[in-house]
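Whiteboard transcription, Tuesday session. T.W. wrote the structure tokens on the left side:
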């Protein structure tokens, strides 16, 4: 006689929950948006300025439609109000801007980037977000090496934007690829800039390593991606990024050390020790900057940056409160920028320092909002990384590797911002908004409006879904 039972031991194993086709398509779309942000100059070189603006506007419109359809629940009090205030102030600067057309155009791009950051953080969980970033970076790394191979093996000449062939003149900063892959020179990848390729490669190494530490499948492939990213980082030969590598290593070691503490007072001695080391290291780097720059292959004036900084500062202090008007980047065809600062026969399109650039464009008020944005995000990202997940009396839950992502990304942006203005736009600003919003909405991995919505769609328990 057959006996039927509902006991779990006798029940057949349930198949794992599968994601809906719609959610998979959503994740694919967010990967595409992240790829656009991480390789903006690729799209500029491919489509031109007009094509890039059209692409950004179309994807922003699509994101708006998806947002309206999905209607993700948002904790409005936890919105990233500081970066939104900075965006609002940048938009208001059109009232007094010296270059209003440039302000309107670049602010539209800034607003679109902000919307995309909010959208991605609202529709993806933490784990999905890290996976999406990793996928977008894989495209950047893979296309970069394939592009350089194509130029070196097939074209065999430097190539200009829009696939124009080199005409035999001196190689300039405008070249998309300099055909250096096989001759040992600096390579630029699909982004067309060695510094940008190096930053993307460093970010890729961080994200892939976090994926491995989080127990992602196919670890061997991830190690392969790390190897490729390391090769591109080495061949891009960017001094700024090597400083970022050192900073990331120090911050990572500090965060992991903080995770070993058991009592509240134990962290104090580590903070004091690292403060002393940090101040000492900063002073040593400043007074020995000539030697440090020589090791990095840079001149003592930071390859012309001191001249740029002095020129921008002299003009910025003429309007110290409101600034001259938002324009990130400086549009080289605008009369006020065209020929203002020229380096290597090219008009410079940013101040090569995000803090100085913000002060120049939106004054002390805008700079203050930007500083507060970074301070707030760094503060929350740091404790997101070093505190155990806790919502009750249980205080020994395991740490999550992916909680290290925000603080390591911010480290990269801070170092990059010392010599570049890129963190004010493109992927830098998108990540600032996206991480600020995600930490506010989901302060614990596995918890938040998006997580609860997806759990309900799958018929799972929604009280606590922290893994």
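and on the right, the sequence the group agreed on:
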């Amino acid at each position: 006689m057959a006996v039927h039972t509902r006991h779990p031991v006798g029940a057949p194993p349930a198949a794992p929950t599968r994601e809906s086709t719609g959610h998979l398509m959503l994740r694919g779309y967010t990967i595409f948006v992240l790829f656009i942000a991480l390789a903006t100059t690729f799209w500029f070189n491919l489509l031109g300025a007009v094509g890039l603006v059209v692409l950004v506007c179309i994807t922003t419109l699509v994101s708006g439609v998806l947002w309206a359809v999905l209607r993700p629940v948002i904790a409005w009090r936890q919105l990233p109000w500081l970066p939104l205030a900075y965006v609002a102030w940048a938009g208001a600067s059109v009232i007094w801007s010296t270059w209003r057309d440039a302000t309107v155009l670049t602010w539209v791009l800034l607003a679109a980037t902000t919307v995309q950051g909010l959208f991605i953080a609202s529709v993806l969980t933490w784990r999905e977000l890290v996976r999406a970033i990793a996928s977008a970076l894989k495209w950047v790394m893979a296309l970069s090496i394939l592009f350089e191979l194509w130029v070196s093996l097939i074209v065999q000449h430097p190539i200009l934007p829009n696939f124009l062939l080199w005409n035999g003149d001196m190689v300039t900063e405008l070249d998309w690829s300099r055909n250096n892959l096989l001759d040992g020179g600096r390579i630029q990848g699909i982004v067309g800039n060695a510094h940008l390729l190096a930053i993307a490669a460093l970010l890729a190494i961080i994200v892939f390593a976090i994926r491995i530490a989080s127990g992602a499948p196919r670890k061997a492939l991830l190690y392969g991606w790390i190897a490729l990213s390391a090769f591109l980082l080495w061949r891009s030969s960017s001094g700024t990024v090597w400083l970022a590598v050192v900073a990331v290593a120090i911050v990572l070691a500090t965060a992991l050390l903080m995770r070993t503490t058991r009592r509240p007072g134990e962290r104090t001695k580590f903070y004091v020790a690292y403060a002393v080391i940090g101040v000492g290291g900063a002073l040593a780097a400043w007074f020995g900057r000539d030697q440090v720059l020589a090791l990095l292959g840079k001149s003592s004036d930071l390859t012309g940056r001191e001249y740029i900084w002095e020129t921008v500062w002299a003009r910025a202090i003429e309007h110290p409160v409101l600034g001259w008007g938002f324009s990130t980047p400086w549009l080289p065809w605008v009369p006020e920028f065209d020929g203002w600062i020229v380096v290597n026969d090219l008009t410079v399109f940013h101040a090569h320092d995000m803090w100085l650039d913000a002060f120049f464009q939106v004054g002390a008020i805008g700079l203050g909002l930007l500083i507060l944005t970074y301070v707030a995000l760094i503060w929350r990202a740091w404790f997101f990384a070093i505190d155990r997940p806790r919502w009750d009396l249980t205080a020994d839950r395991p740490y999550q590797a992916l909680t290290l992502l925000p603080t390591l990304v911010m480290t990269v942006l801070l170092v990059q911002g010392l010599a570049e203005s890129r963190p004010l736009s493109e992927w830098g600003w998108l990540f600032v908004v996206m991480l600020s919003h995600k930490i506010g909405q989901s302060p614990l991995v596995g918890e938040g409006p998006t997580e609860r919505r997806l759990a309900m769609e799958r018929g799972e328990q929604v009280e606590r879904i922290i893994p």
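Someone added at the bottom: The first helix runs from residue 21 to 38.
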